[in-house]
Amino acid sequence: MTIFYVSRLILQSRNDIARTTVQGVNTTAGMIFRQAIKDKLIKDNPQNGVVVPKKRKTVEEIEKDPIETKYLERKELDDFLKAVREHGLDLDLERFYLLAFSGMRSGELLALKWTDINFKSNEIRITKTLYNENNNMKKYQLTPPKTEGSIRTINVEEEIINLLKSHYRRQSKTKMKYRHELEEYHDGNFVFSRPNGYPFIQKRTDYLNIPILLKKLPLTFLGIHILV
């Protein structure tokens, strides 16, 4: 058995089986092969280097997908931001205001670094997005946007800039504390980061506190990318 054989099996199964299932089988196979090496049954692990490809939709599948409107009306947005101010957790205000009034996607928000913000001109430079396939905070990747047009500079309201300035001062104090207390402190200079310095994970929406806030409002839908 070789890596080419295993890769071919993966490719043949990707259209009929869910990708998460294929990933699970691939991981299990790797464990079996590693044990076989320890038992001296094989010399090399044919699973090493095997990548489970993402399934791409066909044009027909994309055309059949219904297009739903996922934006909030102005009144709904005002009510939601009021709930954020009254019931939001730490950093909810800064994150939701940026999402609502900047047009940023969640991955762009999580990839923001302080060097991207110009406090003098009230501008934010969007040059990257955060990608984390394995849901592991330490294995994140910063990648460029899908198109060159997504690289942009946006003007931000003074109110939001003031929120970010206040957050920067608080974070600086927190950073000084945990940098000395934690052995694996990660100084990635992220605007929104955990106490250990690592960025939040995009696949998990709990960092946006959506479930709690939704209970305060009669909204039937709220996506992460809320716009006016």
The low-confidence runs, each spanning 5 or more residues with pLDDT under 50, are 223-228
Tally of individual helices: 8
If you average the pLDDT, what whole number results?
Answer: 77
- Spatial order of the strands in the main sheet? 1-2-5
Q: Tell me the span between the first and last alpha carbons.
A: 56 Å
| Largest sheet features | 3 strands, antiparallel
Coarse morphology: globular
Q: Structural class, judged by helices and strands?
A: mainly alpha
Strand content: 5-15%
Q: Provide the helix percentage.
A: 40-55%
Run of helices and strands: HHHHHHEEEEEHH
Characterise the protein shown here:
This protein is mostly helical. It has helices at residues 3-13, 19-38, 59-64, 74-87, 92-102, 106-111, 158-181, 210-214; strands at residues 117-118, 123-126, 129-131, 141-143, 152-155. It contains eight helices and five strands. Strands 1-2-5 form a three-stranded antiparallel β-sheet, with no helix packed on it. A hairpin with a 4-residue loop joins strand 1 (117-118) and strand 2 (123-126). Helix 4 (74-87) runs antiparallel to helix 5 (92-102). The longest helix is centred in the C-terminal third of the chain and has 24 residues, at 158-181. The chain starts with a helix and ends in a 14-residue tail after the last helix.
Please specify the SSE layout and strand pairing:
Layout: H1 3-13, H2 19-38, H3 59-64, H4 74-87, H5 92-102, H6 106-111, E1 117-118, E2 123-126, E3 129-131, E4 141-143, E5 152-155, H7 158-181, H8 210-214
